[in-house]
Every structure is written in C-alpha cells, then in structure tokens.
Amino acid sequence: MYLYNSATHKKAEFTTHTPGRVEMYTCGPTVYHFAHIGNLRSYIMEDVLEKFLRYEGYDVHRVMNITDVGHLASDADTGEDKMLKGAKREHKSVMEIARFYTDAFFADCAKLNIKTPDVVEPATNCIDEYIKIVSGLIDKGYAYLAGGNVYFDTSKLPRYYIFNDHDEEDLAVGVREGVEEDTNKRNKNDFVLWFTKSKFEDQALKWDSPWGVGYPGWHIECSGISLKYNGEYLDLHCGGIDNAFPHHTNEIAQSESYLGHPWCPQWFHVHHLNTTSGKMSKSSGEFLTVSLLEEKGYDPLAYRFFCLQSHYRKSLVFSWENLTNAQGAYQKLLRRIAALSPEGEVDEETVKAYKEKFLQQVGNDLNTSMGVTLLYDALKAQANDATKRAILESFDRVLSLSLLEKADALRAEQAKAQTATADGGITITGEGDAEIDALVLRRAQAKKAKDFAEADRIRDELKQQGIEITDTKEGASWRRV
Ligand code: AMP
Ligand code: ZN
Questions:
Q1: Do residues 254 and 221 touch, judged by C-beta distance below 8 A?
Q2: What is the pLDDT of residues 305-319, one digit of tens each?
Q3: Are residues 11 and 147 part of one domain?
C-alpha cells in the first residue's frame, strides 16, 4: 500500500523490516475518563489500517499501551497528573479509575468494531523497562539529573524536530500562556524521563529507582512498551495528530538515542475530529461519548461509517446533523444488502476483480471513502446476489461495518413480520422494522373492523415518523419517505 509518512512528509510505498511482517504500535488512551468520539476516530482509522494490512496478507503484530501514570495535564510535563485528577474527581483510587476507564474504553471499542491489539499493556506494568532505558540514556550522555528529576537533553540531537520544521520559539514550553517554565531544564524542549520531585505531593503511584522514589514521564512508556514487545525495529507507529509533538518527537529522541540506530521509519497520524465550535473536550461543552450517541438513538456503527466517509488526514467536523445523515445512509445501505438473496453460486472471478480494485483504491493512503464508494459499486455489479454478498463480505473484513450480519438480521425480521401478519389474513410488507409492521397491521385490522378513527390515528402517528402507508389487496405496505 501507499501511505503518507509524517516523518518524510511524503506518500510512499509501505515497507517492513522483516518481509511479510508488520510491527505496529499505537499510543493508547489515558484512562482517567471516558474516551470521547474524537479519540475514537483515531482508533477507528488505526483499526482500519491494521485490517487493511492484514487484508493485503501481512502478519501484523500490534501493540498498544494504556496510560495509567505520568500523563500530565499539559503534554509538556506541566500541570496535574491526569490520573490523579480523575481519582480526585470520583473519590476513588488511581488504580480503580484506571481499571474502570480501561474497561469502558474497550467496551466502546467493541461497539465500534475496533479489534483489540495483540498486546495491550498498562504503563504501570513496565517500570523496570523504563528504568533500564533511562539508565542507558544517562550512561550515553543523553540524559541528566536536575532538581531530583531525570531529563532528556534535546541539544544532544542533530535533528530533534522530526515532523515539522517548527519554529523553536513557537513550541517552547515557557512561552505558552499560563505555563510555568521548569527551571531545571537546560533547553526549553528537554523533557522528563523520570520524576522524583513533582509539584504534587500526593502522587499515588511511586516506584523505587536509582534516582529516588518516583514515577516515569509520559513519553518513556511508549518507547519502553514498544521496545519490549515490538523489538528494536518498529515498522509503523500510530496516533492522533496532537501526539506528533511533543510526544512522538520525544519517543523518537529517546528510542534512537538509546538504541543507537534508526527506530521507526513510518508514522501515521490521524487528524482531529472537531465540533462546530472547535476543539473536542472532556471537560467543557457536550462530552461526546459512544454512550451519548446510543442514548440519542444512534447506532455506534453509524459513527464508524461517518468516520470512514472522510480521509484520516483531514480534520472532520462532527455535528448531530452530520451523524443523522450518516446513520440514514448506513441504514439505507443495510436495507439494500438485505434485499440480496444469499442463494446462488458465487462467481469467484468477479469477487477477485473487486478485491483487487479495493486493494488498489483503499491502498492509496487508506482512502476509506473510496472503500465506502466501492460498497455501492458492488451492489451495482454485473453479478448475481450471492456474488455481490461475497464482495461486500470481503470489503467488510477491513471496513468492519457488520454489513452482512446486520442485513441478515433485517431480512430475518422482515420474514418474521410477514409470516406473523399473514396469519391474521393480512399481509404487511415494509422495510424491515417489526415495530412499524405491528402498527401498520393494527391499522389494517382497525380498518377491517370499521374503526376508522383508530385507523386514521395510527396513520397520522406513522406519518409523523416519516412512514407512508399504501393499502394493498393483501393488507398494506409501508415505506420511509
Ligand atoms: P489520550 O487519551 O488523550 O491519550 O488520547 C488518545 C488518542 O486520541 C491519541 O492518539 C490522541 O492523539 C487522539 N485524539 C485526541 N483528541 C482527538 C480528536 N479530537 N480527534 C482525533 N483524535 C484525537
Ligand atoms: Zn505514545
């Protein structure tokens, strides 16, 4: 596949250190609160990427951390520890908070058909690994002790800014509004590898280390976990675009300095989901979670569909109206698939030709909206229904929209509704919604019993929901307008 690489600012053919095998790493969530649907946009797109690589035939080994320590309110080592903030908010221990929100994260992922990575490792499980790397960095002269903490010395690197040609002053921590400068740092972008002195005395989790009792900085956990499970040569590193600086920049700095050779050549960054008023937030405005989508009657997979319709390298604006449109399109697509008969012989040649088209088009920098377009093309293919279903099933191994599963459920519902109603001598045909079938049947029965007031009442009620009824010889049929 061809993939844009943030490290080279170019689209290039994806390659791996070991042929046929992908060592992939994803920055996991900070489990101090529920994930918002912006966070989940990143995980959806990374999930599609992993599945696409598998679809191409790669053996993918994917690792993800769970940040349960060390992530401060600002990515640049300032502010309160996010986990501690979560624990205080809910009057629970840090570990209780971590467990609860880790489970909540994977429950959300399951609803969005996001596969769990092969390795999921909480940061607090790998303290020895970080101590080993930090010690190595001190020995090699890349790190220094100051004011009780261990810092990485960014001036030791010939090229620190990997992803952008940043103006150093723009990014300098000390010049950010409201952020106190850490006077221990020799250079503005130096970052903490190990804290022993923190601004908050009540840091819950602490470990013994050669530099005193303390806890790791946020960046070191991803290097430590990746080196432990992916090995010294990582092929592909993923995260949201906000992670590029300083988090990924610092990961590269410490990993390559420690290893003494290049570490990860390909970097995949998902751009942000924003609201119409700007940045997505967990603390102000509407906190957009998967549960909220469900409460409002949306299928989480309609949100996945919404994400797939746009490119991961463009920021995306979320609004309820946009989601409503995506849900409408997704349901309509399911109804079209439900109308396909599973009987008949699959034409494997046609399936293969479509699969090649998918590989080529989606393989152009993970063009998921083209993948969605190809679903509609498959429905229009010069082929029988069984072949169309086989094509859709194949594409859905990457897109993961539960297309056949949901369409089959819809078919079963339609069949059930028809038999049930036919028993009373009245047949209702519709678009596969048992509740609406039942109402339409009640109206037909009322009409038969000459209770026209009740029949009209039901017709009006359904009209309000956008349902149009047509009387037929056998009973009635309905459709959404
Ligand atoms: P966090 O839980 O804050 O560590 O973030 C988890 C992931 O979500 C990281 O990869 C972030 O880069 C990503 N992320 C944060 N905000 C957004 C957003 N609005 N849209 C897309 N991804 C985001
Ligand atoms: Zn990370």
A1: no
A2: 999 999 999 999 999
A3: yes
